[in-house]
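Shipment paperwork, digital attachment
Item: protein structure file
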Amino acid sequence: MTTGRPYHHGDLRRAVLTAALDVVASDGIGAISLRDLARRAGVSHAAPAHHFGDRTGLLTAIAAEGYGLLADALAEVPPGGSEALRELGVRYVRFALAHPAHFEVMNRPHVVDGTDPELLRLRARAGASLRGGVAGVPAERRGDMDRAVLAAWSLAHGYATLCLSGGIPEDGDPADTFRALAGMLFAGPVTG
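Attachment content:
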């Protein structure tokens, strides 16, 4: 039985990704269905599988795209100590607020293929920017490098997540609030 829907599309991959991001933003990851996305794109139900294989492949592509966008945003911050680290955190928060569906998928490792080479490459690129920002903080202020990376990431991720969930009241520019929080975290010598 034919549906009368075309297999080919001008940019099916982008159309499916965009539709999937809309679904994640409105209904959550659980609502993702390749068949539904094909219907939205006006193509046969098999067409999205040609690009992504399956639901996991689609979600992996979304996560990889998100890490690429995040890495690009982080790469715009020039190196330079605690101020650069704060600005990396600001970029992380701004990314999460501007791309909540990407952010949601990126932070659900059980729904993506964690061995995908493109995902791994882009995740590592974003992580290297954060690690480089922490490395720019004097050792006597940051303490153990791995713990400092975890602390910086936890602060930016936690704050972004709270903003997205409505867990904290809006009190002005999230970037300014994040800068103040980051200043408190790396304000003085670390002990222990």
